[in-house]
Design a protein that fits this description.
The chain is α+β, with helices and mostly antiparallel strands and about 180 residues long. The chain has one domain. Helices cover about 55% and strands about 10% of the residues. The protein contains five helices and six strands. The strands form two sheets. A four-stranded antiparallel β-sheet has the order 1-6-3-4, with no helix packed on it. Strands 2-5 form a two-stranded antiparallel ribbon. β3 and β4 form a beta hairpin. α2 runs antiparallel to α3 and α2 packs across α5. It starts with a helix and ends in a 6-residue tail after the last strand.
């Protein structure tokens, strides 16, 4: 019974991550479409819309204030990591996901790629927001991609937003995004 409740909560949080990103991107695209191209303000606007989406989730009673704030931080961290990787490697974000086959066909991956590209445009403005310099921890929700255990190097692949479990090999709790994801 306890495991079922835990799985239901995880499902709720994962769905909320995806919904929050979707809401933020919808508002961002509507806004940019109505006022023209705003590349120099892309990332600040997207982060503002993520915060607005966070508030919407609380207002609609989909999430508590605490849950909503955590998920917004997770989305922003994922977007900063993706944008940083794109700027560093000059490669398309599809490579960052490190999945064989049709990963990029998934709707959440498409949304994530659009959001990360917008974030890349103005990444420097948000460097100060990175709480732990690219380190993720067990229990956090992350978007699609590959996480690497800081302790043993085990790779965990996520096809969609998911909660990071302890490392299955060494039970480590700290991870980073795979840096050489195109390799």
């Amino acid at each position: 019974m306890k495991e079922r409740a835990s799985n239901e909560l995880l499902g709720k949080i994962v769905a909320a991550y995806e919904k929050m990103l979707e809401r933020a991107m919808d508002e961002y695209q509507d806004f940019v479409g109505s006022v023209g191209e705003l590349e120099h303000k892309a990332a600040p606007l997207l982060h503002e819309f993520i915060d607005k989406s966070k508030d919407t989730a609380v207002k609609l009673e989909e999430l508590t204030e605490e849950e909503s704030a955590k998920i917004a931080r997770y989305i922003k961290q994922d977007l900063r990591e993706a944008a940083s990787w794109m700027a560093r490697t000059r490669q398309d974000l599809k490579q960052w996901f490190s999945f064989e086959g049709g990963m990029a066909k998934l709707e959440i991956a498409d949304l994530f790629m659009k959001a990360a590209d917008q974030t890349r445009i103005d990444l420097a403005r948000f460097e100060h927001e990175v709480e732990e310099g690219g380190v993720y921890h067990t229990g956090q929700i992350v978007g699609p991609g590959v996480m690497v255990c800081e302790d043993c190097g085990e790779e965990l692949r996520f096809a969609r937003a998911s909660r990071i479990p302890p490392c299955p090999r060494c039970h480590g709790v700290s991870f980073h995004r795979k840096d050489d994801q195109a390799a």
